[in-house]
Write a structure and sequence with these properties.
Layout lengths: L1 E5 L6 E7 L9 H12 L7 H4 L4 E5 L1 E2 L2 E2 L4 E6 L7 H4 L6 H6 L11 H8 L5 H7 L4 H17 L3 E9 L2 E2 L7 H10 L10 H13 L6 E8 L15 H10 L4 E6 L17 E4 L3 E4 L7 E2 L2 E2 L4 E7 L10 E3 L6 E3 L10 H23 L5 H16 L2
């Protein structure tokens, strides 16, 4: 499977084209809308979320509630475009009007300056409109299809907030279903109720200070068959693909599996997962310190992956920069006002990880249509169980 996204933050719409989805997957626009609505929620979001109500139109690839195996086109209209048509419209404008509206002051922490240098744009709105995290709505739309495929195969995915500004949620020995329930009830999308108020207070304080804060998101994927990915080439290792997908999310700066960086502080006997076997389950690991991966392949244990999100760089307490025309210093402008986007990022990361897992399954098993894929995965699970 693969997908492309298109669209600008204040453009007409966001578009996602998804290819390679098996035929006969039951898919309704409500399946996508549920994910899009979840992405817009979360404590600490700014005013943009009150303007845009993300709802999808399915323009191709689905007929009478099921997929056709042809490319699926998903479109999310930007309701606010009517206020930006003069700025973001495709028709030419006169030179004076264009110069007056040019963005020439790059914001620290954004793609503004790097993109302008690379693509030779004097108007950095040509960069910031596409580099905006608004694009993650299109990626969540693609991920919602992946989650639908995984659900049909008995694979469950949940994303939740592990940490905000040093306030860390405890690891709770609960099922994925319970994690889904708890994170959906929480305004900060944490599964640890004891830290929810502290996280909210930290977000409120950052907003009061005109600042922003980041955190850590964790995603758990349960029910994945062993052997997804491969050890034979670097670009076939599934944990590598997931890691790359996670750090491609706007503002994400690091990723780890299981113990992750804490493995640098432990001995081998405290790091690796001992193997056991029983006739009911087949092979399994007594622990899951490596987060469900060995040699770039799934072990059959839950995938547990964390991503760290930096504080978003648009602040009410703006940082210093330099105008690319005058070369004079200035205080960076404000484009939006989230004080903390970590709860929303948990939804984005959940869908990004789901895409990589579903894509790996579709790549590995016969998958022209869903019944074929289901039988192939079931047969492989049974083969592995009795190996």
């Amino acid at each position: 499977m693969r997908y492309l996204t298109a669209g600008e933050s204040h453009g007409k719409q966001l578009t996602t084209i998804v290819e390679g989805v098996p035929a006969h997957l039951n898919l309704l626009k409500e399946d996508v809308n549920e994910s899009l609505i979840r992405r817009q929620g979360g404590y600490g979001r700014g005013r943009r979320m009150k303007i845009e109500k993300d709802l999808v139109s399915i323009l191709s690839g689905v007929r009478h509630g099921y997929t056709l195996a042809s490319p699926i086109t998903l479109a999310v209209t930007n309701d606010d475009f009517k206020n930006w048509e003069d700025i973001m419209g495709e028709d030419p404008v006169d030179e004076d009007q264009h110069i007056r509206r040019q963005v020439t002051k790059p914001r620290p922490g954004h793609a503004d300056l790097n993109g302008a240098l690379k693509y030779n744009h004097r108007d950095m709105r040509n960069i910031l409109e596409r580099s905006s995290a608004r694009e993650t709505a299109a990626r969540v739309a693609a991920g919602s299809i992946a989650k639908k495929i995984l659900s049909e195969l008995g694979v469950k995915v949940v994303g939740y907030v592990k940490e905000i500004y040093g306030i860390e949620a405890s690891d709770l020995p609960i099922s994925v279903d319970e994690k889904i329930e708890k994170s959906n009830k929480s305004l900060v999308r944490t599964i640890d109720e004891t830290v929810e108020e502290s996280m909210k207070q930290a977000i409120d304080q950052a907003k009061q200070d005109g600042d922003s804060i980041g955190g850590v998101v964790e995603v758990t994927v349960e029910g994945v068959p062993a052997g997804l990915g491969s050890h034979v080439q670097y670009d076939r290792k599934l944990d590598s693909k997931i890691a790359g997908a996670v750090v491609s999310i706007n503002a994400f700066k690091g990723v780890e599996f299981g113990l992750g960086f804490k493995a640098a502080q432990t001995r081998g006997s405290e790091t690796h997962d001992e193997i056991d076997y029983d006739e009911t389950s087949g092979y399994y690991r007594k622990t899951n310190r490596l987060g469900g991966f060995e040699g770039g392949m799934t072990t059959g244990m839950p995938i547990v992956v964390k991503g760290v999100m930096k504080p978003i760089p648009t602040l009410y307490k703006p940082l210093e920069s330099v105008d690319i025309n005058s070369k004079e210093p200035f205080k960076a402008s404000i484009e939006r006002s989230d004080s903390c986007a970590v709860p929303a990022a948990a939804v984005v990361m959940e869908h990004v990880v789901a895409w990589e897992v579903a894509s790996a399954i579709v790549d590995q098993f016969p998958s022209d249509y869903m019944e074929q894929l289901k039988k192939s995965v079931e047969d492989e699970r049974e083969r592995i169980r009795t190996f």
